[in-house]
Design goal:
The structure is a single chain. The chain is of the alpha/beta class. It folds into 2 domains: 6-65 and 379-423, Urease, subunit C, domain 1 (Roll); 67-348, Metal-dependent hydrolases (TIM Barrel), CATH 3.20.20. Helices cover 31% and strands 20% of the residues. It contains 14 helices and 18 strands. It has helices at residues 74-78, 81-85, 91-107, 121-128, 161-164, 169-172, 181-195, 222-234, 246-255, 268-277, 295-300, 302-318, 351-366, 407-410, and strands at residues 10-18, 30-35, 38-43, 54-57, 62-65, 67-72, 110-115, 136-139, 143-145, 176-178, 200-203, 239-243, 259-262, 280-283, 321-324, 390-393, 411-416, 419-423. The strands form 4 sheets. Strands 1, 2, 3, 4, 5, 16, 17 and 18 form an 8-stranded mixed sheet that branches. The longest helix is centred in the N-terminal third of the chain and has 17 residues, at 91-107. Residues 62-411 form the Amidohydrolase-related domain. Pfam families: Amidohydro_1. GO terms for molecular function: hydrolase activity. This is Hydrolase. Keywords: Hydrolase.
Length: 426
Amino acid sequence: MKAQTNQEKQIIFYNVRIFDGKSSQLSKPLNVYIKSNKIEKIDAQPIDIKGDVVKINGKGKTLMPGLIDVHVHLTFGALTMEEMMSKDFNFNNAMAKVGKSAEETLLRGFTSIRDAGGPIFPIKSAIDKKQIKGPRVWPSGAVISQTSGHGDFRTPDEKSRRFFGKPSRAEEFGATFIADGRDEVLTATRENLRFGASQIKLMAGGGTSSAYDPIDVTQYTLEEMKAAVDAAEDWGTYVMVHAYTPRAIKRAMEAGVKCIEHGQLLDEETLKLMAANGTWLSTQNLLESSPEMTELRKEKRKDVIEGQKKLWPLAKKLGVKLAWGTDFLFEPNTNKEQNSYILKLQDWFTNAEILKMVTHDNAQLLKLSGLRSPYTGNIGVIEEGALADILLVDGNPLENLSLVANPAQNFLVIVKDGEIYKNITK
């Protein structure tokens, strides 16, 4: 369905029950008036607005905030590793695939995402200019990695830029900065900020999708990591780090990092430090294996998969600030499972806790970007004055969370920034 034009940006939802992003119960039947890109009024009484207004009868169905995924790689998730490593790789063709994936993400009900690293700025710009459809994007830009780190994507025949003077193809593509020493980390951080990064993504430990770094290694010295934090804080924003182990995460916290990505190998002591420090844990339910996954990657993630079963309940018990994301990489066929991954949280959380996490709580994490946030206004909630990122759900997801796993059928209306991108109520 074609998005509304600017002249049509008035919407009234009649007779809806609201999940506001925080409550454990739906509201009584209410009416919601959207003007421009904001929720103007919520009232039990009829709302009568003159002019060109789209009127939607909710018939007692659920109105809720748009979903938020805070660990997405729009580019790396839309392309396979084989495609990116191919000698015939074409940037424009790749961006066309990423653009299609962005639209599919929005139509799954994800009205906002935080891109956790990669070449994102052209796609974000196209979305914001309404040249293509997609969610709001909080971009990190190129990941920042030490030589031999999780973001060192060089092929075996690519030599070090430091010694041989030529950037790797991944660096030229905008996927990564290989930066060693305080000065290079400062430059890489500032380059991303210059292009519009809303937060900085640093690699602080080993990873499963990279060939050269074991999971257990700690990456970046305290001085290097603090350089990124200092540069980000000078711009009013923050650093998020990829890390699994207590050693890497303790160093990151000492450097002033505000958000840990993953953390599946964390111990109780470090989680208690995170809770006391107010450090966010943005974590996932990673897939053990898939047909597209290499044997090396399957082997490297075994301990991580085992660890995540312990991490979620322990972090919840200890009061760590929790956020949720998917982190799909190099397996485009997995993207269609984005919604169903929300259901994996049911082992440890109530439906209300889960819906709060993937709306209100994830939105609170996005607020750490401060003045570097690309969008002004509150998201993740249904309340007067909030931005109009809204889903109309056919049923009550507080009672039946599986509704969110079938967005094509159950998300009757999708609104982002006050514009209707889907409406199958008629």
